[in-house]
Design goal:
Blueprint lengths: L3 E7 L4 H13 L6 E2 L8 H5 L6 E8 L11 H7 L2 H5 L8 E9 L8 H12 L3 E2 L4 E4 L5 H20 L24 H9 L10 H4 L55 E12 L2 H5 L3 H5 L3 H8 L6 E7 L13 E4 L5 H11 L4 E3 L5 E3 H6 L9 H8 L5 H11 L4 H9 L5 H7 L7 H7 L6 E4 L10 E7 L2 E3 L6 E3 L1 H9 L1 H4 L8 E7 L14 E4 L6 H25 L11 H4 L6 H5 L7 E7 L8 H9 L5 E6 L10 H7 L1 H10 L3 E7 L3 H13 L1 H9 L3 E6 L2
Parallel strand pairs: 1-2, 1-3, 3-4, 4-5, 4-6, 17-18, 17-20, 18-19, 20-21
Antiparallel strand pairs: 7-8, 7-16, 8-13, 9-12, 9-16, 10-11, 14-15
The structure holds flavin mononucleotide.
Cofactor: FAD; FMN
Protein name: Methionine synthase reductase
Pfam families: FAD_binding_1, Flavodoxin_1, NAD_binding_1
């Protein structure tokens, strides 16, 4: 019997999921296309096991966080990399043939780590490779490698079928009618011509666009019964949890699972303040005038006021059912604004309701509100949308942008200006995608994650987090734009910021615990904290937590020295062998290790948490405060790496002799790499690798 064919994916932001479902649709398989964690819902194990008839598995999997696997692939990866498979020669997939397409980004040090791990582990499980692993790099564009891989997969399957059947089941061919002349040039075509003077209107053949054509029939998502999207976002701080064993925190990891992306907590914003930026000075708004503005009007007012960082304090449930530790992140559920949804409905002419694949009637408005349509379009979106242009010139232009020859134009037009779906509909007015197509093409808006900046000891029912407000120049003519989540949060606290409201809007929140980005259980370890920009956010929580934990210990000990013990019986001072003067030493039987903070920003106006940092330094909570300004002096760019180099000897002593923990947090595009290279120069690359393995050098890097 011919082996059964399976396609599975592990995806954080939808790319692998899209590629997987597209491949699956083009292969017209009878097996379902599922996320890797759901592999046990299929017959893969029995087909590929020793007694099975064989299976072919095509895996598409991205890497997220800092070399982590997407959440919807984690369980599968844990299964295939079990020690047993290596040590006891257990081969659960001895009749498996497989191929892995790994998605990643070379800006991250662990390029395609999850895909590589799957590829290696499947071999350990007895599987044999149909082809070497393919690694697609988001930094240079995924398309080329993805398309080549898909071609190889389809060819290999066609070849294996050819011996019994010459009809290849896999050729998604389409023909387009030749373009009719249309004298009206839409803005989109005008921009394409301006960007690429060589552009000429012509029918773009299918093979120039590639094999990733998404049709509504390939849509398994159109009812929006989507699995919850795994957490990821451009502004994501990807962190996960490992129990701190720190008896001084109020954290219990079990109870913290109560609130999730699917079941968030409705939290109230209790405080808001700008950590940097001069918005309020420029706006000169008073509470009365702000109270009359709609959310959209507030966003309009806030646009274009330069770089600014906001800190919010929000409520936690009174019953301690949402707890956190320093280093964790808060997830925020985001949806599209009413104005964007209305414009989409109006431009595309949708009705109020639609019937999903499952036959259930749903509200168009609420489904569209959940759709991630304000993110910059990817080529795959254009491939899907192009054919819904009724004007042939517009259709050709979109197919050109989606195709290989249009790559450079795509980059300098769509990618560079973050053109999103609404922009595209405005620029190419004949494009009217069906609702089913949109629901299949776009995933749900992923939650946004922000590092907590407070300690749970700061307040039992409050948590603080900070973020840079995304405010950027978008596509020509459409003016500035605020980030979907950060813009909405900023606008919703404008009343508070001008002093007019005691409490502002609610936010749907849930915790995301960090596995590695946690304070060591013992405070005796020195800490080296490297966090330029908002990368410093979790470190404010770290330092505050150490301080408050110490104060709490002092208090506990002071109580005991005064003769009262929590158990209720009396203690004489002689019983504990210390006098009241020794209280602090007794309480902190271990002396707290030094903390060195390396922080970087453009100039002093940009220095967030300055007062707090200086106070921490003055109070001795921070042993060293090393600040680097990249734009303070003309022509002299100083980054955290420079400050690290200046303090090389001290870092060698702290890391190699005093056993310090090193935490690095911030924007991933180059900072992570540069800081790691700098550490390599200071303590040696081998030591860096070793300490990374031992989780004593821990990174939390997000894409900028
Ligand atoms: C927050 C974040 C972290 C990432 N971390 C890594 C990484 O450690 N290694 C890597 O090779 N790629 C990394 N990437 C790049 C993704 O793997 C790449 O963008 C991929 O196309 C995403 O595919 P997906 O949408 O299926 O998750 C990261 C991307 C994001 C947004």
């Amino acid at each position: 019997m011919a082996p059964t064919i399976y396609v599975m994916y592990g995806s954080a932001t939808g790319n692998s999921q899209h590629i997987g479902t597209s491949l699956h649709a083009s292969l017209q398989l009878s097996t379902p296309c599922v996320e890797l964690n759901k592999w046990k819902d299929t017959k893969l194990a029995s087909d590929a096991g020793e007694d099975g008839d064989g299976a072919k598995l095509f895996v598409v999997c991205s890497t997220t966080g800092n070399g982590d696997s997407p959440e919807n692939a984690g369980r599968f990866i844990r299964f295939v990399k079990r020690k047993k498979n290596h040590e006891e020669g257990v081969k659960p997939f001895s009749k498996l043939q497989y191929a892995v397409l790994a998605l990643g980004d070379t800006n991250y040090s662990e390029f395609c780590a999850a895909g590589r791990l799957i590829d290696k582990s499947l071999a350990n499980c007895g599987g044999s490779r149909l082809m070497p692993i393919a690694k697609a790099d988001e930094a240079v564009g995924l398309e080329e490698v993805v398309e080549a891989w898909i071609k190889e997969v389809t060819t290999s399957l066609a070849c294996s079928e050819a011996s019994c059947d010459n009809d290849s089941p896999i050729s998604p061919e389409k023909t387009l009618s030749p373009p009719a002349h249309d004298p009206a040039v839409c803005d989109g075509i005008r921009i394409v011509k301006a960007v690429n003077p060589n552009y000429t209107d012509r029918v773009v053949p299918e093979d120039e666009i590639g094999t990733l054509v998404m049709t509504s029939s390939s849509n398994s998502l159109s009812s929006l019964n989507l699995p919850p999207p795994p957490p990821s976002d451009l502004a994501l701080l990807s962190t996960s949890l490992k129990s701190a064993n720190d008896s001084w925190t109020h954290t219990s990891s079990d109870s913290a699972t109560n609130y999730t992306a699917n079941k968030p907590f409705s939290s109230k914003i209790t405080k808001a303040r700008y950590l940097s930026g001069q918005v309020l000075e420029k706006l000169s708004l008073d509470a009365a005038s702000v109270s009359k503005l709609t959310l959209e009007q507030k966003m309009e007012k806030l646009k274009g006021h330069g770089r600014r960082v906001l800190e919010l304090e929000v409520t936690l449930p009174d019953d301690f059912s949402l707890e956190y530790s320093p280093g964790d992140s808060i997830g925020i559920i985001v949806s599209q604004s009413d104005a964007s949804v209305s414009e989409l409905i109006q431009r595309c002419g949708y009705g109020d309701e639609y019937t999903g694949n499952d036959g259930v009637k749903r509200s168009t408005r609420s489904s569209l509100a959940k759709l991630d349509v304000t993110r910059a379009l990817k080529k795959r979106h254009l491939v899907g949308i192009a054919d819904s242009a009724t004007n042939t010139e517009e259709r050709n232009c979109l197919r050109f942008l989606a195709g290989k020859k249009g790559s450079a134009t795509f980059e300098s037009f769509i990618a560079k200006h973050s053109v999103n779906l609404l922009d595209l509909l405005r620029l190419f007015p004949s494009v009217k995608p069906s609702l089913t197509l949109l629901l299949s093409l776009f995933t749900t808006v992923p939650p946004r994650y922000y590092s907590v900046t407070s300690s749970p000891l700061y307040h039992p029912h409050r948590v603080k987090f900070a973020f840079t407000v995304v405010d950027y120049e978008a596509v020509e003519g459409s003016g500035r734009r605020l980030g979907l989540a950060t813009g909405m949060m900023e606008a919703s606290v404008l009343g508070m910021l001008v002093g007019g409201e005691a409490a502002a809007a609610t936010l749907e929140i849930f915790p995301k615990h960090s596995k590695e980005f946690r304070l060591p259980a013992s405070s005796r370890f020195p800490l080296v904290l490297i966090g330029p920009g908002t990368g410093v956010a979790p470190f404010m929580g770290f330092v505050e937590h150490r301080k408050l934990a110490r104060q709490e210990r002092v208090k506990t000990t002071a109580d005991s020295c005064a003769g009262m013990w929590r158990g209720g019986f009396e203690l004489e001072s002689g019983d504990i062998g210390v006098g009241s003067d020794d209280t602090t030493d007794f309480c902190s039987s271990e002396k707290a290790g030094p903390i060195h903070l390396f922080f970087g920003c453009r100039n002093e106006d940009d220095w967030i948490y300055r007062a707090e940092m200086e106070e921490m330094k003055a109070q001795g909570e921070l042993t060293g405060l090393h600040v680097a300004f990249s734009r303070k002096e003309e022509g002299k760019k100083v980054y955290v790496q420079h400050r690290m180099k200046e303090n090389s000897d001290q870092l060698v002593d702290l890391i190699l002799k005093q056993d310090a923990y090193v935490f690095i947090c911030g924007d991933g595009t180059s900072m992570g790499k540069d800081v790691m290279a700098c550490l390599g120069d200071i303590i040696g690359e081998e030591k860096v690798e070793l300490l990374k393995e031992k989780k004593k050098i821990v990174l939390d890097i997000w894409a900028g």
